């Protein structure tokens, strides 16, 4: 983004599928600060209520709002983090209103009569949506409302037809809720992992046009979004498409190789062989009047997705206090965010004296035998500890000795005289020296034996054969295993070791393929 736009920007918002909020290499605050945004929406947090810890829930400088999966642990989940300068006036979990049990909600649910109550609850129980509503000051000086819908849309599993239906029903409910909020006044942003690429330009490779356009999820996007190229700018209702813009394509309509998700198993990120399925969608009037730019951040690692970011001219207006959904109000965290100074208490002299912090305890009573109080106490302690001050047979004082007295230097030699050798200390020391010499000998013998055994077993078992070289690059292949259910599940095969990429990229994986058992083999 150009420098003048950077200077004009007064509000930034980020969306990122983090692929596990607790699996990050650095602290969460460091991640949030590095994203540099007023509102940060995370998807696929993979944390449930019982696994949410305080460092994740309570981050200094931010207020957070979570939606957890109620059907499976370590699955799905979204979270919205707002800077304390962008506290929302309302927050809500889910799209349907079925999870509402407190005040401070967003409302505007639209007509959901075509849904059964059980279906609405099912669509929200996987923890796929958090809605926050903010006050903003627009670029023309007017105060308005901005509602941010953070979503992690379902994936359509080809092996599970019911998930295809679930995904489409989620899309439909999302549209009902977003359009209802928009028509109630203010602005709406929908952002997150939508799990569908919209145009052929959003895919890494060419596809069959008929099959591409026939995808139900893509058909939903076509009617939900408006094409900024063909739309009548400034019209209240678009002549084609829906009420929302894909903000990235609004500013970068023809940019190729702009992807947000890559396959980590095949190393496809190295060759930028991916898809664009992460979006910041916003109502048309907001994009046209307040958006400055919308970008992709492929340089940010740590997930199989990268963040997307929008820059806006409007300015956030913080609410007086966080809405009830805020994570800090959960019973397990409420009242636990304290300053470090509260844990640092000055140690009083009396406390130090009673805990052994001073060598001499205060004593105002006069001595009766002329001895100093410290000496009296020393004799009393010696009596309790069994120490009489007399030397034992080993020439040391009996009683509780120093811990260092049980250790001798490593180079301690055996006692020089016969009488001294008979003492328990020297008997033990001499035995230790003999054991060390025997141990060194045994270790040497054992090492030689292991080498001989290894050589023997190598003559019997040759081990796996070296991998073949791929025909495209003449380099050793990698061994893979079929994990997909079917007749070949569990079988192993060799493929080119290079990362997956476009067929025109010479640095990408070639099409070499070879079954390990050689019952079937192809090389392209």
Written overview of the protein:
- This protein is α+β, with helices and mostly antiparallel strands and 524 residues long.
- It has 13 helices and 19 strands.
- The strands form four sheets. Strands 5, 6, 7, 8, 9, 12 and 15 form a seven-stranded mixed beta sheet that branches. The protein has a six-stranded mixed beta sheet with strand order 3-4-2-1-14-13. A four-stranded antiparallel beta sheet has the order 16-17-18-19, with no helix packed on it.
- Helix 5 (161-183) links the parallel strand 7 (143-152) and strand 8.
- Helix 5 packs parallel to helix 7 (216-224).
- The chain is globular, with a radius of gyration of 35 Å.
- The two termini are 43 Å apart.
- 31% of the residues are buried.
- The model is unreliable at 347-372 and 519-524 (pLDDT under 50).
Short description:
It contains 13 helices and 19 strands. The chain has helices at 3-8, 28-35, 54-57, 117-124, 161-183, 209-213, 216-224, 247-251, 284-290, 349-354, 373-385, 418-421, 424-460, and strands spanning 11-17, 39-43, 62-67, 78-83, 90-93, 129-137, 143-152, 187-193, 244-246, 261-262, 274-275, 278-283, 291-296, 308-312, 315-317, 478-481, 492-495, 513-515, 521-522.
How are the SSEs ordered, and which strands pair?
Elements lengths: L2 H6 L2 E7 L10 H8 L3 E5 L10 H4 L4 E6 L10 E6 L6 E4 L23 H8 L4 E9 L5 E10 L8 H23 L3 E7 L15 H5 L2 H9 L19 E3 H5 L9 E2 L11 E2 L2 E6 H7 E6 L11 E5 L2 E3 L31 H6 L18 H13 L32 H4 L2 H37 L17 E4 L10 E4 L17 E3 L5 E2 L2
Parallel strand pairs: 1-2, 7-8
Antiparallel strand pairs: 1-14, 2-4, 3-4, 5-6, 6-7, 6-15, 8-12, 9-12, 10-11, 13-14, 16-17, 17-18, 18-19
Helix pairs in contact: 5-7
């Amino acid at each position: 983004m150009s420098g003048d736009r950077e200077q004009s920007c007064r509000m930034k918002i980020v969306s990122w599928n983090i692929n596990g909020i607790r699996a990050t290499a650095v602290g969460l605050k460091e991640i949030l600060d590095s994203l540099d945004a007023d509102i940060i929406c995370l998807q696929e947090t993979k944390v449930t209520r019982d696994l949410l810890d305080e460092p994740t829930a309570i981050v200094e400088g931010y207020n957070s709002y979570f939606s957890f999966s109620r059907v499976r642990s370590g699955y799905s989940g979204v979270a919205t983090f707002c800077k304390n300068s962008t506290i929302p006036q309302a927050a809500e979990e889910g799209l349907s209103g079925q999870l509402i049990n407190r005040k401070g909600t967003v409302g505007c649910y639209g007509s959901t009569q075509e849904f059964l109550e059980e279906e609405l609850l099912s669509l929200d129980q996987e923890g796929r949506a958090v809605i926050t509503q903010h006050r903003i000051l627009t670029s023309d000086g007017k105060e308005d409302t901005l509602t941010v819908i953070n979503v992690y849309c379902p994936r359509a599993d080809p092996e599970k037809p019911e998930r295809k239906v679930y995904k489409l029903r989620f899309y439909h409910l999302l549209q009902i809720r977003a359009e209802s909020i928009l028509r109630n006044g203010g602005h709406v942003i929908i952002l997150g992992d939508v799990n569908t690429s919209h145009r052929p330009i959003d895919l890494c490779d060419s596809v069959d046009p008929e099959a591409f356009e026939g995808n139900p999820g893509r058909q939903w996007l076509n009617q939900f979004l408006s094409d900024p190229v063909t739309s009548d700018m400034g019209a209240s209702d678009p002549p084609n498409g829906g009420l929302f813009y894909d903000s990235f394509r609004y500013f970068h309509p023809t940019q190729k190789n702009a992807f947000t998700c890559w396959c980590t198993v095949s190393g496809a990120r190295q060759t930028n062989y991916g898809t664009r399925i992460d979006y910041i969608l916003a109502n048309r009037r907001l994009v046209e009047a307040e958006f400055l730019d919308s970008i992709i951040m492929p340089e940010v690692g740590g997930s199989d997705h990268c963040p997307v970011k929008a820059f806006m001219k409007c300015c956030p207006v913080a609410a007086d206090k966080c809405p009830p959904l805020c994570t800090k109000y959960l019973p397990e965290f409420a009242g636990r965010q304290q300053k470090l100074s509260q844990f640092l208490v000055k140690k009083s002299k009396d406390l130090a004296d009673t805990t052994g912090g001073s060598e001499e305890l205060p004593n105002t009573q006069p001595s009766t035998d002329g001895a100093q109080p410290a000496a009296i106490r020393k004799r009393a302690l010696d009596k309790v500890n069994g120490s009489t001050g007399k030397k034992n047979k080993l020439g040391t004082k009996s009683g509780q000795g120093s811990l260092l007295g049980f250790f001798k230097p490593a180079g301690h030699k055996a006692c020089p005289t016969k009488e001294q050798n008979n003492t328990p200390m020297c008997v033990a020391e001499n035995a230790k020296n003999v054991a060390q010499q025997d141990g060194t000998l045994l270790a040497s013998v054992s090492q030689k034996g292991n080498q001989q055994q290894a050589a023997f077993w190598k003559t019997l078992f040759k081990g796996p054969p070296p991998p073949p070289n791929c025909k495209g690059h003449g380099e050793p292949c990698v061994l893979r295993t079929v994990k997909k259910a079917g007749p070949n599940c569990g079988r192993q095969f060799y493929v080119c070791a290079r990362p997956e990429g476009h067929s025109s990229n010479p640095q990408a994986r070639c099409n070499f393929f070879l079954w390990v058992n050689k019952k079937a083999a192809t090389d392209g």
